[in-house]
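My main concern about presentation is that the manuscript never shows what a single data entry looks like. An entry of this sort, consisting of the sequence and the corresponding backbone structure tokens, reads as follows:
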Amino acid sequence: MIGGVVNALCEATVGLRLRVGVKMVLAAIVATLATAEASYSADGKLLLNVFDAKTHEPLACRMHLLGQGKRPKKIETFPFWSDHVVFPGKIQLNLPAGFYTFEIERGPEYYNVMGNFTIERFADDTKDVAMRRVVDMSQEGWWSGDLYVRRPARDVELLVSADDLHVAQAVTWWNDKNDLSGKNLKLPKNRLVTFDRNRAYELYCGGFTRAGTEVLCFHTQVPLLLQGQAGEFPSLVKHLATLRKQENSELWIDATASYGWDLPVLAANGLLDSVEVANGHFGRKAMQIDSKVGKPFDSGQYAGGSGYARWTHDVYFKLLDCGLRLPPTAGSGSGISPNPVGYNRVYVHLDGSFDYNKWWKNLKAGQVVVTNGPLMRATVDGELPGHTFHGEEGKELNLQIGMTLTTRDPISYLDIIQDGRVHESIRFDQYVKDGKLPPLKFTKSGWFILRAVADISDTYRFAMTGPFYVEFGEKPRIGKKSAQFFLDWVYERAKQIQLNDPTQQAEVMEWHRKARDYWKDIVEKANAE
């Protein structure tokens, strides 16, 4: 416990200084050329060699290179998306004369390198760039993953390396379309590809967007296509239930948004394994909010980008408050969202070396932290997220939080979320001063989560643990208001289903009736308000 406090003090202080950035100015060297050489291209050349400052090994990384008018620059032969390019440690920049700014990143565990340079006519220069680690999360047992990568399959290995990820899910089919169909690509036959000793990605993952609901499907051998992309029939719920039975325990279903219209129906029918609390709408530069998808939220109560984020989290909290133990996850949505791969990521704790199957097992157990910025490592009474604490009836249970936090962005408050509400917000500077967080006290069953939100106005940058649980008398908390929330939601959703074919209408509605009965039962079993 004391060691954790000391780490928190030291790393929090160092991390706050990181937001200033490491600046580097590259000056192009202009060569004196004879008149006879004037026929050569007037473009300048700059060769960048990026390497690890400690090992001096070449380091795959991501670069945001902006030219005239702050427009992103594409570099031929290297994967480019939105505003960034990735490369395996060495890149030749052949650029028109002009002024350029750049930012080189390798995920949140490295310092960013920022700066600018000028290319003059006939410039030809080479510069070395050393990348320094802030922290090595894997050395502390935390291994990163991005569950939604929609980039070309041939580029995934480089993309995973460039943002220092260890697990990625490569989405190659969607709804009724297979992205790889008819393409003569030399791809591995096996869905799982491992490389660099401790990195892995799965090919042939996919997903569905259906009637305001979006889900991802992992661990599949073939595309699980569903015809009729836009309509209510055939039912997405029935399709997933059939696939679950066929795939046995292999199929993993991840909801990309907690507010998808059919989320209560999917949950009621046991068709959810996890919920993304940081999805592709959580953007690196700005929130990408689509208010047309899923259950609408109160724009007064949940105003702006931070409001959308809080709505996403609050619905997830209500699921937990009904006794459902679904781990939180994250996906960048890169390829659909402008995000780079790994911007939104989930860290899973492993004892010992990296093991892909165990990574998923521990994700299921909730030993996770979700982040798109701050790096949080938390234990409570020495236990990881996902743990259940047992209290004795009639006695108070006291729990002590230990935390290590590394951040490149300023943070004002740390939130302790208990039973769906912010139980306490602790000023970050006070936490650094005291070196500890206040104890948590329970006299009845409940759950709690730790969250840190960065002071960033343009987007919502945060870190959040998976839930910890508390039980008295072996009974989990079931909140009546939360259960009623989902029951009302099921009725609201059912009213939307109006099919002309009575047989189709009856088939689809059967799943919603099952969900109605499930949530009614949860309301009746509620043991807390």
Q: What stands out?
A: The CA atoms of residues 51 and 58 lie 4 Å apart. The two ends are 34 Å apart (CA to CA). The longest strand covers residues 199-210. Residues 373-477 form a domain with the Immunoglobulin-like fold (CATH 2.60.40.10).
